[in-house]
Amino acid sequence: MWKWLAGIVLLVVTASAANIKLYLKDGSYQLVREYKVETDRVRFYSVERGDWEEIPLTLIDLKRTETEAAEHKDEIAKETKVISQEDAAQRALQKEIMRIPQDPGVYWIEGNQTKILKRADTMVHTNKGRSVLGVITPIPLVKGKGTLELMQPHSQNIIANPEQEFYIQLANSEEFGIARVTSKGMVRIVENLTFVPVTKEVIEEPDMVDVLHQQLTEDGLYKIWPKESLPQGEYAVVEYTPGRMNMQVWDFAVKPAAAKPAK
User: Are strands 175-184 and 233-240 parallel, antiparallel or unpaired?
Assistant: First the structure.
């Protein structure tokens, strides 16, 4: 679609570039496709009448005509360059989108490889113990605090780039982002929870990173990346609806790449 539109715009720009204002000294002008100065006369092709005509050179404001024609040519060249750049950017974006699977999940690109960030299993820890998030039915109604946890002390998904871009294909229209994950003993805490039994409300408090994102497709594919470089530590891409305790977690750790030994 974009390629077709870019082609139409380029044709319009090219067509307008072919038209020149041939100014007369009285301030009026003829719209011409081209003109030639022949001794004491100017021969031109009239756009209005579709034929070649002549007019005495003494009646033509040649300096104004040439100056405006040169300026118009420069403007057309700039517009054509912008259109070409936008077309190239759109084609690059489509190529980028084609590299990401359509299945819901989180992905990242390293070199020529598209990698899948595996979804983590999460547990809810309350004063009643730990339960797998996916099987909590109904939501605990006992007033108190809790945490959403990952059972391993460290993520196995190591990212060397602190400004890594991720791609998230949403299954539903929900909030998403990157959360800081806090290591505590043999577990990692994704977010703090507060249970309000009277209103059956769960207050979720993830520690979210400031991020930027770009929607790539209408069916929920987004690119997401941190606004500033992430310090070394534990993180997770998360997707959730606040208060429903349905958070999906894709964990990773930012660690600098190991230096290669000197030869």
Answer: antiparallel
* Model confidence pLDDT, tens digit, residues 29-81: 999 988 899 989 999 999 989 999 999 999 999 899 888 888 888 888 888 77
Among 182, 174, 120, 102, which Cα is nearest to 147's? 182
**29 three-class SS:** strand
Domain boundaries of the chain, sorted by first residue: 2-98, 105-254
Angle between helices 2-17 and 62-98 (to 10 degrees): 170
Count of CB atoms situated within 10 Å of the CB of 194? 13
pTM of the model: 0.67
Residue 123: CB atoms within 10 A of its CB come to 18
- DSSP letters along 212-257, please? EEEE-STTSEEEEEESSPPPSEEEEEEEE-TTS---EEEEEEE-PP
Q: What is the dihedral of CA 12, 14, 15, 19, to 10 degrees?
A: 130
| Fold (CATH) for 2-98 | SH3 type barrels. (2.30.30)
Phi-psi region of 9 (alpha: psi -120 to 50; beta: other; left: phi over 0): alpha
